[in-house]
Amino acid sequence: MKRKVLLIYTGGTIGMEKDYETGSLRAFDFGNIFEKMPEMRLMECEVFVHPFAKPLDSSDMGPEEWRMIARLIFENYKEYDGFLILHGTDTMSYTASALSFMLKGLTKPVILTGSQLPIGDLRTDAKENLLTSLYYASLYENNEAVIQEVAIYFEYKLLRGNRTLKYSAEYFDAYSSPNYPILGQSGVHLNINKDNLLRNTNKESFYIDEHLSEDVLFWRIFPGMKLNHFKEISQMKVLILQVFGSGTIFSSEKTLETLQQIRNNGTEIVVVSQCISGGISFGKYENSNIFSKIGAISGTDITAESAITKAMHLMDNPNYKGTFAENFSKNICGEISN
């Protein structure tokens, strides 16, 4: 039996081709993808294409587009065995992270991929990314999907979506998962690290939770920063501070006073690290104790992209019991290490 995969094309470099008259890149009609890539007809799965009416640059992707993708998956969940989302690379980690929180009880693969060069370029990475992603999106064993989570496939590596970040705008190997091992790697064979895969242990039925609050602000701390700017953000419900190392910030009475004032205004403060690898550890250094004093939340080893989308999903979400701090500290779908 051939597995059925729904390919959702949102936009991005992967769907571009060069206009040889102008030299500019333009989106091509994804309805003609089988003419552009006849190799797809040789796949051991049936591919059905659903392009966005207007392809979007990934910088234009946001909460409403995340909801659109989640709804498409929900509406077609019973009909298809897997889902492949073609996406621009700049914000793919945000979309993958958001979807990981929104898609509940997932037991089928949701794979995102893109490319650094357009599909029509002679040296493109688009074809390999697309074809291998289709393999992963249709991979079943004993009538059960091997991948049952949101993942990103890029340059021979399958990665947990909410653990990824784009670290290169130059190289084909553009994504990394610094705090979680890879899910799989493609070579002569498609390798899967099954011990690293997520499973729906609660056996809950699939549904979507579209809740996303936009009252979230991300702020990177830097040496010499004037904290009086913080007084202007008192209306934000969540402030994510990206601080130094394992959780340090310049220590002074003014710092404590300002952050405490923000907390007193009802704003939740989440602390994440500027380091790509490793995470937050309150108390490791004296200059991190300030966060314990004000009741800030440790993001541990979460990525910035995942912290932002997790906060958006949790803030004021009536579907979660307990406080924001309690829920943010939980490992919901593999986004932090236990």
Automatic annotation (TrEMBL):
Entries under InterPro entries matching the protein: AsnA_fam, Asp/glu_Ase-like_sf, Asparaginase/glutaminase-like, Asparaginase/glutaminase_AS1, Asparaginase/glutaminase_AS2, Asparaginase_C, L-asparaginase_C, L-asparaginase_I
Recorded superkingdom: Bacteria
Residue intervals of the L-asparaginase N-terminal domain: 4-195
EC number, UniProt record: 3.5.1.1
Presence of keyword Hydrolase: yes
Keyword Hydrolase listed: yes
Keywords for the protein's UniProt record, in alphabetical order: Hydrolase
Annotated Pfam families: Asparaginase, Asparaginase_C
SMART domains: Asparaginase
Listed PROSITE patterns: ASN_GLN_ASE_1 (PS00144), ASN_GLN_ASE_2 (PS00917), ASN_GLN_ASE_3 (PS51732)
Catalytic EC class: hydrolase
Active site positions, chain numbering: T13, T89
Domain Asparaginase/glutaminase C-terminal: 216-319
Similarity-based family: Belongs to the asparaginase 1 family.
Matching PANTHER family: 60 KDA LYSOPHOSPHOLIPASE, L-ASPARAGINASE
NCBIfam families given in the database record: asnASE_I (TIGR00519)
Protein name: asparaginase
